[in-house]
Amino acid sequence: MNRPFFYDITLRDGNQALKKPWQLSDKKVIFEKLLDLKVQAVEVGFPASSEMDFEACRELSLMAPDNLVVSGLARCVEHDIISAVNAIKDAKIPRIHLFLTLSPFHMQYVLNKEPIQVAKAATDAVKFAYEQIKKVNKRGEVQFSVEHFGDCADNIDFVIDTLKDVVKSGATTINLPNTVERTHPGAFVEMIKKVKDSLCDDIIISVHNHNDLGMATATTVESFFAGAVQLECALNGLGERAGNTNFYEVAVALHNSGVDVPVDLSKIYETALIVAQMSKVPIPEKAPLIGPDALAHRSGIHQDGALKTKDMEKGAYRPIHPSLIGRKDDEKIGFTSQSGKTAIFEIISKAGYPITIQEAIRLQPIIKEAAEKVGELPTAQIIDIYFNETFNVKGDFKFKHFSHIDKGTFEYEFRYKDKEYKLKGTGNGPLDACVDALKQLGLNVKLLHYEQSALDEEIKGAGATAMSVIHLEDSKGREVIGRARHESTAVANVRAIFNALNIISKENDV
Questions:
Q1: What are the residue ranges of helices labelled H in 265-356?
Q2: Contact 106/147 with Cβ under 8 angstroms?
Q3: Closest CA to 332 of 271, 280, 286, 265
Q4: In this structure, are residues 85 and 132 in contact, taking their beta carbons and an 8 Å threshold?
Q5: Degrees (nearest 5) of the Cα angle 371, 376, 379?
Q6: pLDDT tens digit at each of 510 positions of the chain
Q7: Dihedral of the CA atoms 257, 262, 265, 267 (nearest 10)?
Q8: Using CB atoms within 10 A of its CB, is residue 154 exposed (0-12), middle (13-18) or buried (19+)?
Q9: DSSP three-state, residue 103
Q10: In the chain, what is the greatest distance between 2 CA atoms, to the nearest angstrom?
Q11: In the chain, N or C: fewer CB atoms in 10 Å?
C-alpha cells in the first residue's frame, strides 16, 4: 500500500472562507506550522485572485524546502495560468492546479456550455499549463481537478474519457473533489475506484472533500483505501460552508488503521490551537481529537473504564493516547448527575486531597444531588462538599472540648441528640479514652487504626496544619473512616472520632 500524500489546502481553500482572510505575515506563520507537520504539498493560494495573493504565493514559494510541492490554483484560462506560473516558479517543485467542472448540472446551468466544449477547454488548459511551467522549472507539475466530481455519477464515462485526454496533455495528478457533499461515502468511493481503474497506474489520484453532511473524513479515509493516494485536507477543517476535510482526523484515522502516515502527529494539538487563534474560528467543544471535551468523561460507566486504563496506550474510552497528537492534558473527569463514585475519587484525589473509595461512595448521593440542580459541578464546589462532609460532618454528635485529667484519664465535652455530656474515659491516650467514655452511652465502637499527616497548605483559611484519620468499627462490624483537621494533633484525633460517629449515626447504626 502506498503511503498517503498530504496536500494541505488551508492557505487557499481554508483562507478564502475566513471572515477576515490572512495577511502575508499570518500566512507565513501557518506555512511554518505546515512544515513542522511535515506535509508533502501545500496549496499556497490563488495567484490571479489579487495582487496580495500573488505576492503571498511568491513569498511562500521562496520559503519552501526542496522536498515540498508548492501549488497555485488557476482556472482553465491563460491569464490565471500565467499568473500561477509566475507566482510559484521559484519553488523547488511547483505545481499548477487547474480546475473545471464536468458535472452535467454545472456545465448546463453555471457554465452554459456543451460537454464537448468543456472537455476541450480542460485539455487545452492542461497542455498550456504544462508547457508554461516546464519552461521555467523542469520539476514543474500540473494537477487537474474535476470540480463537482461527486455530481458526476450519471456521466462518469464522459468524465473518464476527458481525464484520459487531460493526462495525455500533461496532468500527472487527477483530483476528484466532493465539492458539495450530497450522499454517503460509499457511493463516492465507488466512483473513485472506477476512475482509478481506468487511468494509468502512474497517475496520482487525489480527493478533496467538503463536509456539508459531516462525512468528509470518512469519505477521504475510505477513498485512500480505494486508491486515492493524495489527500487534500485543511487544518482545523477550515473551508467553505461546513469546511473541508479535517487534516488531523484523517491523519489519525489512517494511523489507527495501521497506515504509515508521513506527518508529525505530535504537532497536531499545538497547531490546532494556533490556527484557531489566528483564524478567529474557535475549536468546537466536541471537536474530535482537539476539542476541549474530546477527553472528557461524565458517565459513571465511562469514568470507571477511563480511570482503570488511563495509564495504558489504549484507553477504554478514547481513540488514541493524548500524547500522540501532543496533548499534555489528561482525560477529564466531570461530575454530573450521571457520574459515580469513581469520578468523585479521581477529582478529589487529583485536587490533592485524601479520599478512599468508601468515602467517595458516601459522598456520591450528596454531590449528585447538587449536580442535579445545576448540571456539571466545578471542582471547587466538589471540594467544598468534601470539606463539609469530611472534616465537619453534621449529625447527632457535636464535639466541643476535651481535657487531660490525670495519667490515662480524659474528660470529653460534647452534645448528643440535643443533650449535653461530660464523660470521662481511661485508656492509652485520648483516642482509647474517648472510645471508653462513649461506652457509657451504650456506643460500642472499636478503634482499629489511626494516623496523622501534615497538610501542605491552609484549608479554607482555617490555618489547619494537621490532619488525623481514624478507622472505627461500628456495631455491625463495618469499618468507618473519620477525618479531622486542627492545629493540635490531639484535638484532630478526637474530632475525627466524632466525625466518624456522625457518619455512623446518619446510617442509623448507632
A1: 268-279, 300-308, 341-350
A2: yes
A3: 286
A4: yes
A5: 95
A6: 689 999 999 999 999 999 999 999 999 999 999 999 999 999 999 999 999 999 999 999 999 999 999 999 999 999 999 999 999 999 999 999 999 999 999 999 999 999 999 999 999 999 999 999 999 999 999 999 999 999 999 999 999 999 999 999 999 999 999 999 999 999 999 999 999 999 999 999 999 999 999 999 999 999 999 999 999 999 999 999 999 999 999 999 999 999 999 999 999 999 999 999 999 999 999 999 999 999 988 888 988 898 898 888 899 999 999 999 999 877 888 898 999 898 899 899 888 888 888 899 999 999 999 999 999 999 999 999 998 899 989 999 999 999 999 888 999 999 999 899 999 999 989 999 999 999 999 888 999 988 877 655 444 444 546 789 999 998 888 889 999 988 888 899 999 999 999 998 876 544
A7: -170
A8: exposed
A9: coil
A10: 112
A11: N
| CA pair distance 149, 126, nearest whole angstrom | 18
Strand segments (E) across 355-510: 397-406, 409-416, 419-426, 446-454, 466-473, 479-486
Q: Which CATH number fits domain 397-506: 3.90.1150.10, 3.40.50.1370, 1.10.287.3610, 3.30.160.270?
A: 3.30.160.270
**Homologous superfamily in CATH for domain 5-263:** Aldolase class I (3.20.20.70)
Place of cell 460537454: 115
d(CA 197, CA 204) in angstroms, rounded, equals 12
Sheet containing strand 466-473, strands side by side: 446-454, 466-473, 479-486
Output the nine-digit C-alpha cell for 436: 471508653
* DSSP per-residue codes, 146-171: EETGGG-GGGHHHHHHHHHHHHHTT-
Length of the chain: 510
Domain ranges for the chain? 5-263, 296-390, 397-506
Tell me which long-range contacts 156-163 makes (C-beta under 8 A, separation of at least 24): 156/191, 156/194, 156/195, 158/102, 158/115, 158/119, 159/102, 159/195, 160/194, 160/195, 160/198, 160/199, 161/119, 162/102, 162/118, 162/119, 162/122, 162/123, 163/195, 163/198, 163/199
Count of C-beta atoms within a 10 Å radius of residue 478:
12
DSSP characters over 384-427? HHHHHHHTS--SSEEEEEEEEEETTEEEEEEEETTEEEEEEEES
Distance CA 348, CA 346 (A): 6
Residue 24 and residue 56 in contact, taking contact as beta carbons nearer than 8 Å: yes
